[in-house]
Amino acid sequence: MKSFTQNDLTSMESRYRAQLINSLSGFKSANLIGTIDNQGQTNVAIFSSVFHLGASPALTGFIIRPHSVDRHTLENIEQTQSYTINQVGQKFWPAAHQTSARYAKNECEFEQTGLSKTFIDGIKAPFVAESLLKYALTLKEIVPITLNNTLMVIGEITNILCEDSAITDDGYIDIESLGTVAISGLDSYHESQRLSRLSYAKPHQLPVHF
Amino acid sequence: MKSFTQNDLTSMESRYRAQLINSLSGFKSANLIGTIDNQGQTNVAIFSSVFHLGASPALTGFIIRPHSVDRHTLENIEQTQSYTINQVGQKFWPAAHQTSARYAKNECEFEQTGLSKTFIDGIKAPFVAESLLKYALTLKEIVPITLNNTLMVIGEITNILCEDSAITDDGYIDIESLGTVAISGLDSYHESQRLSRLSYAKPHQLPVHF
Lengths: 210, 210
Description:
The structure is a homodimer.
Chain A: E1 2-5, H1 6-11, H2 14-22, E2 28-29, E3 31-36, E4 42-47, E5 51-55, E6 58-64, H3 71-80, E7 82-87, H4 93-98, H5 109-113, E8 117-118, E9 127-128, E10 133-145, E11 150-162, E12 182-184, E13 188-197
Antiparallel strand pairs in A: 2-12, 3-4, 3-7, 5-6, 6-11, 7-10, 8-9, 10-11, 12-13
């Protein structure tokens, strides 16, 4: 096995290091975050850092770099407290990737990438029409991560829209059947193939595959 | 599309709700976290909440529920400041799942699940021998998330061990070639199939597939 020490990491060329370190966490979620500012200008941007935080209350987190291309997303959420998270699917993942380009504030990523926006009653932020599983959130807290000047944005889920066919009897949503993609590293996109679901693990007995 | 409102979520049966909400973030990473206490008792537990936090410094985060089965992992990290993260692969994912059973503190998940531990010089915490991409971390900060009494544990990466063959010329690690699995919901495991890598997105030009 190849071994890297902390010294190796420190002396590494920065783009090589970014690719390497971004590969370490494993597969990442692929989501488009939709926002709007108080003047009605919409924005949509891809994030690979959305993660489950809790089911009750229903909380989702994501990491944002406030001085990067992501800043329009952050400014809009701070203005309106409203945003949507839209799973990226096999039919539009290249357009989703393209939202990460550094467009000017007055250029709308929906128009630039060909993605379509859609709205529902009571929610300010736009959804991505192409996404088959999407939900609206209200901002609850922005937690500063002082170690590297990033922020964790936490929202509570208020409305879920999902293709009926993917919702199974126990509440699990078969996101593979929706064509949801995963990301590895900074730029690699993957579809999935289920190995199995496993029953809740208990000591001294084998889990059941189902 | 099926629509759920906040009222629907509040009145939902709790296990159904846990399955549903856990499906929303998209594909999750599958990692085993290895720890040891000051008496030398080792622990290994699966987590689906490990995420990339930054490349410089090289920081990784994960979410932990301090009053759950995860608490031995937390106690050990607090004692020794040392832990390892080990990507879960296609050859041992059922054993990895089994580590989530509620074993007693004096039962070692390595012995109970058949996973093998291995150590390297200078790192207290055990690695999972079967894992083809793994790294050691030093605890940097535990950030309380007061909204739901969870904690975000942040560590700095000090040593990486990876199968040589998976490291590409630009630093990207081909985790698909290592058989790294992804999780959806609470209990579904998936292998992956690459769609493509895409070049860094720039405004007004299409990304290149490679």
